[in-house]
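[SOLVED] Need 3D model of a two-part complex

Original post:
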Amino acid sequence: MVGKTQTVREKLNISPQEFAEMGRVGAIYYQQGNFDKARTIFEGLVELDPQSANAHSALGGLLTLQQEDETAIEHLNRAIQLNPSQIAPYVNLGEIYIRQQKIEESVANLKKAIELDPDETDAGANRARAMVLGIYQVIKSDNENLDEINLATEKIN
Amino acid sequence: MFGIGKLLGNVAGGLLEKIGLGKIAPFVKMGLNAMTGNWLGVAQDVFGLVSKFKGNSLDGASKQPPLGGFENPVKNFASQNNPLKGNRLADMFKGLSDLFKGFKALTDGNSGNDLGGLGKIFNALKALTEGANNNQLYNNRLSISQFTNIQA
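Solution:
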């Protein structure tokens, strides 16, 4: 759309702080359940700065909620590409892949989210933990002979 | 030390429903049944992860898909002064309008031009400006933002 070296955000002299504040307004709308407004803002932020991992992550998260999975995956993967240490995109990919019944891919992403939050303080990573527990429960209930497999369960008592 | 029974009790007690994931079990079941890859590896990963849970964290699980950095003001925005005042948004509109005109002049007659991106930015700025007059939004003191200064 514009030159490779300058984003629209830069052309409009929008500072990183202003950009972050715009994102926070979108996040407030999201938390209040006004998803149309939040989406409008996040889509605009992605266009303003396609190099923003936060913008792609936020739009991907909202699209996860709205179950527009394929578009969500694109933004979440882009967010990870731009900033591999963000937790949220992994959590949301984990959720989408459960919906798509791709359990191996789901667990791989949930595992990354959990490993990025060893202190169990991140709400998103704790959502990932809840999903892993849900998967654990299904595996256990469907497989009576699991005790015969070495599953590193020594701490589980 | 924790008990897996307690963690599973959380699940049985409606933890997944509370965070909007109450219907994942059938998808997990179908996905596991259809797996052609490394089922044992997946099971080992899941059990290994659960075995390391410290517990007591699940009540704080995000109730919606998390957004990432925009939800966390501490990491991204240290200043106490909100930079998005009404005049600043007006400046952005003007700059965008100029950019739009210039871009349109350059690409008119070109069937491959893409003004949709600028249109999305315009809509976003419009939503932000509307938000500037939304007392409910700014009075959300428990929210993640310092929006009390935006009302011009």
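Edit: Chain B touches chain A through 86 residues (CB under 8 Å).
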